[in-house]
Structure formats: C-alpha cells, structure tokens
Write a structure and sequence with these properties.
mainly alpha; 10 helices
Amino acid sequence: MLNRYEEIMKRKMKGKRERRDGGQKGGRWSRIRFPDHAQFLLEGAVLIGVVAYLFYDSPLAAVFLCPLLLPYYKRRCREKEEKDKRELSGQFREALAAIVTALKAGYSAENAFAECRREMAFQFGERAMITKEMDRIVRGLENRISLEKLLGDFAARWRIEEIREFAEVFSIARKSGGNLPEILNRTASLIRDRMEIDTEIEILLSSRRFEQKIMDIVPFFIIFYLGVSTEGFFDVLYHNAGGIVFMTGCLAAYLLAVLLSDRIMEIEL
C-alpha cells in the first residue's frame, strides 16, 4: 500500500515539474512580441536597401539608414489604420440601415443586432470587419454584457466619430425610454448623410493621393534610369566624402518633400 502511494506521489511530482518546465519555455516565447504588421518592416528593409544602392552604391550605407525603418513602419501602420477606418465606415453605414430596419420590424434592440450580424455576413462575408464587430457584440450579449457598454467599447476601439455618436445616442435613448426605432432612424439618417458627403470628398482626394504616391517613387526611377543608361554618370558621387554629403542632402530633401506632401493631404473629414 505504501509503495503504491509513493508511486502516485512520484507521478504527481513529475507531472508538476513537466508543467513548470513547459510553462517556463512557453513563458520565454510568450514574452516575445512580434509586430502587428511585420510585412511593413520587410518593405522598409527592402526600401532601405534600394536607397543604399541608388544613393550610395554601398551595402554598408543600409546599416546607417536603419533608423529610417521605424518612421516608415509607423507611417505604413497609420496608412493601414486610416484605410481600415474608411472601409469600416462604409460597412457601418449599411449596418445602421439593417439595425433600423430590424427595429421597425418589431425586433428588440438585442435581436436587431443579431439580425444585423447575419445581414453583414451575407453582404460582406464572415471575415469583414463589420461582421467581426457585430459578432463580438452578439457574443457579448450572450454573456450578459449590456448593449450600451458593447457599443461604447466598439466606438472606443475604432475612434470613428459616427460610431461614437451612434453609441451615445443609443445609450441616451435606452435610458430615456423614448421611441427607440424613431430616434435611431433619425440619427442614422443624419449619420448616413454626413458619411455620404465624406465619401464624396474621399473620392475626390483618392486621385490626388495616387498622384502623390507616383511622385514619391519618381526620383528613384530617375536615378536608376540615369545610372543604367549612362554608365559612370554617378561615379563622381559615390565612395567619396563630397559625394556622400551631396547625396545625403538630396535624400534629406526628398524625405522632407514626402513629409510635406503627407501634411498637405492630411484633411480631416
């Protein structure tokens, strides 16, 4: 009997050690946090290599240009965030129509969002941002979280003005006990009208943004074309102090022009 007890205790202690060792190994890996958009770092590394080749004709220059990787990564992340916000805003406009329609049909507010989730999945697919957000709201309702809190979290997560206004109006309408479908219908109509104006402005700006991107890459093509078509054209600027200073000044002027064009195109809608 004693031997049996000792054998059981040894197995338990062995299991604890294995779990502890595994947890420590997993803990080391869990502390490693990879960037959210690692592909932007790869893009930046390739771009730095291109700049080092075109402006300095030296792979060693890429080492000194590495600090530019961080601002490039932040710029690309900001561009993606703005693109996602524009896409979600357009999808949210359709979600508003689906919610109001469901409320007018007699659905409760909670069931209206569940119906909206099915409608969004049908229109945009299961992987669409609005479908995922509606799915998060529906799962939150199943876990007894208030709809007002879920909408507030949705607005805080994306920081989109229209979503924030809708969440505030919805919370006030629920607390005041007014005619929820009518209030939300008027609110949704006003929000949709403003979003349509923003969409028209965005369409007008999209062509200018495309032109900006073209102008950003034109200097690289000019340098590459001259270097290929005219052999030795840039030799006087490579591998000497004066040429390095001159090309560094050109690179700085180019980066300032890019920053200036970004600032010009930053228009709050």
